[in-house]
Structures are given as structure tokens and as C-alpha cells.
Design goal:
The structure is a single chain. With 389 residues, the protein is an alpha+beta fold. It contains 13 helices and 10 strands. Strands 1-2-3-4 form a 4-stranded mixed β-sheet. A 4-stranded mixed β-sheet has the order 5-6-7-8. Strand 1 and strand 2 form a beta hairpin. The longest helix is centred in the N-terminal third of the chain and has 32 residues. It binds zinc ion. Zinc ion (ZN) binds next to helix 2. Zinc ion binds next to helix 2.
Length: 389
């Protein structure tokens, strides 16, 4: 279980209790790499009497069962999270293991502790199970596969217990700090700093190992260290972001809807009349007096300049039915998530179908900067009084 990262290039292979099981392309690389190194090196050393066919079969089976092991580790997190009422849209397997994408707030240190600790325990359970199979089939050739899986699951559990947030161990650590200081942001800050320290330790150990012994094993630690450092930093940034934007709605940050332009205009007209010398970058388009879609400066620049004269706004715009929108009451965090998911920089704000404004990523970030400058931020309330304590 690791922090958020860009896992959009993943495909879904199935669903378990509504949770999409996804594989990121980088995992395929690992799958082949594991099968290849087991067949070509590890098993080839241990079983010199095996044919290439046998070696590759054992390598592929091991890699597949490793895949299942990582999946079971993630499923254990997922099931406990579901038990606590969180929603888990997807589990994604990628180059460094797996991520359970959880939505919903960690409500208590206890909840976080159990969701995190169950993963390494599941891996160790698997290590024990494969260890038992290894003992049971000791005299058979297949025992090397069980031996490998016992070892790798043990290491998986142990590595994840490192107290580097957002590794499982780091989450366990954060839950303990959280229970003591009663402040999730502070606990996250402390856990992230420890995570970054652990990351540097891995990078250092990896570098020393590469220098002293050569080989790629050390490089792997450097890569994992860099990944962990990145994840620690962004996990903390995420908590700060959530804290700063808590209670702020799309309606609080939106700007008035920009002027609309006729669909029949050419891009040249749009550029000359509206874009040049003006700060606006987003325009609604209209046809027969009704809003028909959205066109941005990005859409404009996608068309080669020499074709602006002959291309209409209609040809380059995004029609209404493809434009994602939000309601004014939606939290800015949710709106930001939507923008990220659909890879857009703005969302029209509709109140019961009526266009009331435009929410842009830039406006949200500016608001955020303002909050950081002001320090302690209290979201403005349009109605219903202030929540100041
Ligand atoms: Zn985990």
C-alpha cells in the first residue's frame, strides 16, 4: 500500500467485491523480469538437470504466484478498509508492488492501524503457508518454487513494515503518533519526515552496494528509495492540500462564466477578437442563443496556425455533452479530483442546469497560495454563519 501516483495507464483484469483489479503496464515488465531471472539464474543454479522448458514453466508459475501474493496483500488492506466503511475503487499492481486506492477519511488511529498492519501480516501468513508446502514437497522438484515464494513473501512483509510513510509500516507508525498527539496533520508531518529519512537510507545503502559490489541489486534499492522519498513528500503535500481546502466549495472559488463566442466564428476571429491581449483562456460557445460547448486556448493551439482562417470554432470545440461539470456545492477537492481524472483544467459550474460560473485549476491553486500566505484559513460561508471557533 503506497501513496497516490499516476496509475492511469492501467487496465482492469477483473473485479472482487466491486473493487477493480488493475495492472499497470510497468507490472508486466516485472512479471517478465522475475520469470526470466528465476528461470535463467536462480532455478538454473539449483536444478541444473531441468530442461529449458521446465525452468521457464517454474519461472512463469512463480511469477504468477508472486502476482497473486501481492494481490492478496492488497486485498487484505481493502477488506479491512471496506469493513471500516471506506470505499476502494481499485487495486493497482505496478512496478513496486501494489496500491489500494482508498477514498474516504481515516477516522481514527485505530482504523488506520488495522488497515495498514493487516498487509504485512497477510504476506507473512503466505510465507508460512508456502513454507509449509516447501517442507511437505521437500523431495519434489517443485519445492524450489514454494521455497522462493516463502522467502519473497517474508521479505515483502518485512519491507512493508519499514516505518517509512506511506509504506504500511509508516502508516502504522503514523497511527501511533496520531493516537499520541491527536493531530493528523502533525502526525503525517512526523511520519513523512521519517519516511524521507528511510528513503535516503535506502538510497545510500543502494549506492554503497553498487560502488562496493557492483551489480544491479543496489540500483534497485536506489530506485525504491527515490520512489519512497517522492511518495512521502507528496503524501504530506496531499494532507496539507486537504487541510487547506477543507470546506471550500466550487461555488466559493468559481469565477463568473466567461463570455460566449458563436460557433460559426473561425479560429482566426476567436484569436483576434478574444484571445490576443486578454487574460481569458476559456470560452463558452453558443449556437442559436444556447450554450453549445467549450473551447480553450489549448484547443486552439492544437490546430496549426495556418488553418485558423478556414477552421470554425465548432470544429475545434468540445460539445456540451462531453464537458464535465460540477454543482456549486461540490467540494473543491472533489472538483480537483475530477479535473485530474478527466485531464481538464476547468469545469463549468451548473446550478440545477443553469450555468453560474467556471472553476479553473489556476483559481484553485491561487486560492491555495493565498491560504498558505494567510496561514490559518477559514473558508468563507455564503450563508448559514461562520464556523469560527
Ligand atoms: Zn501494504
Amino acid at each position: 500500500m503506497l501513496g497516490r501516483m499516476d496509475l492511469r495507464n492501467a487496465f482492469t483484469i477483473g473485479r472482487i467485491r466491486g473493487v477493480a483489479i488493475q495492472v499497470h503496464w510497468s507490472w508486466l515488465l516485472v512479471f517478465v523480469l522475475i520469470a526470466w531471472s528465476l528461470a535463467g539464474v536462480v532455478y538454473a543454479d539449483e536444478k541444473p538437470e531441468w530442461s529449458d522448458n521446465q525452468l521457464w514453466t517454474a519461472g512463469l508459475i512463480s511469477s504468477l504466484l508472486f502476482f497473486v501474493s501481492v494481490l492478496l496483500h492488497e486485498l487484505s488492506h481493502t477488506f479491512v478498509a471496506l469493513h471500516y466503511g471506506m470505499s476502494v475503487p481499485a487495486i493497482t499492481l505496478f512496478v513496486f508492488g501494489g496500491v489500494s486506492q482508498m477514498a474516504g477519511e481515516m477516522r481514527s488511529p485505530r482504523q488506520e492501524f488495522f488497515i495498514a498492519v493487516v498487509g504485512p501480516l497477510a504476506s507473512w501468513g503466505l510465507a508460512i503457508a508456502f513454507g509449509a508446502l516447501w517442507v511437505a514437497f521437500r523431495s519434489e522438484g517443485i519445492s524450489v518454487v514454494f521455497g522462493y515464494l516463502a522467502a519473497v513473501n517474508f521479505l515483502l512483509g518485512a519491507f512493508n513494515l519499514l516505518p517509512g510513510f506511506p509504506l504500511d509500516g509508516g502508516r502504522v507508525f503514523r497511527s501511533i503518533v496520531w493516537a499520541r498527539v491527536h493531530d493528523l496533520t502533525r502526525a503525517t508531518r512526523i511520519a513523512s519526515l521519517v519516511g524521507i529519512a528511510i528513503a535516503w537510507l535506502l538510497i545510500g545503502l543502494g549506492a554503497v552496494s553498487v560502488l562496493a559490489f557492483g551489480g544491479l541489486g543496489g540500483l534497485w534499492y536506489v530506485l525504491i528509495g527515490l520512489f519512497l522519498k517522492n511518495a512521502s513528500e507528496s503524501a504530506y503535500a496531499q494532507v496539507l492540500l486537504e487541510r487547506a481546502l477543507k470546506g471550500v466549495t466550487a461555488g466559493d472559488v468559481m469565477r463568473p462564466p466567461p463570455a460566449s463566442v458563436p460557433e460559426t466564428w473561425s479560429l482566426q476571429e476567436l484569436a483576434e477578437e478574444r484571445v490576443l491581449g486578454q487574460a481569458e483562456r476559456v470560452f463558452f460557445t453558443e449556437s442559436l442563443g444556447r450554450i453549445s460547448g467549450l473551447i480553450t486556448v489549448t484547443d486552439l493551439t492544437r490546430v496549426p496556425r495556418e488553418r485558423w482562417g478556414e477552421t470554425t470554432v465548432r470544429a475545434a470545440m468540445v460539445p456540451s455533452e462531453q464537458v464535465h461539470t460540477v454543482e456549486p456545492g461540490v467540494s473543491v477537492l472533489e472538483a480537483m479530483r475530477l479535473m485530474q481524472e478527466h485531464d481538464v483544467n476547468q469545469l463549468p459550474v451548473l446550478d440545477e442546469g443553469r450555468l453560474v460560473g467556471l472553476l479553473t485549476r489556476g483559481d484553485v491553486l491561487q486560492r491555495l497560495e493565498l491560504n498558505t500566505l494567510v496561514g490559518n484559513f477559514e473558508p468563507p460561508r455564503a450563508a448559514g454563519g461562520s464556523s469560527r471557533k
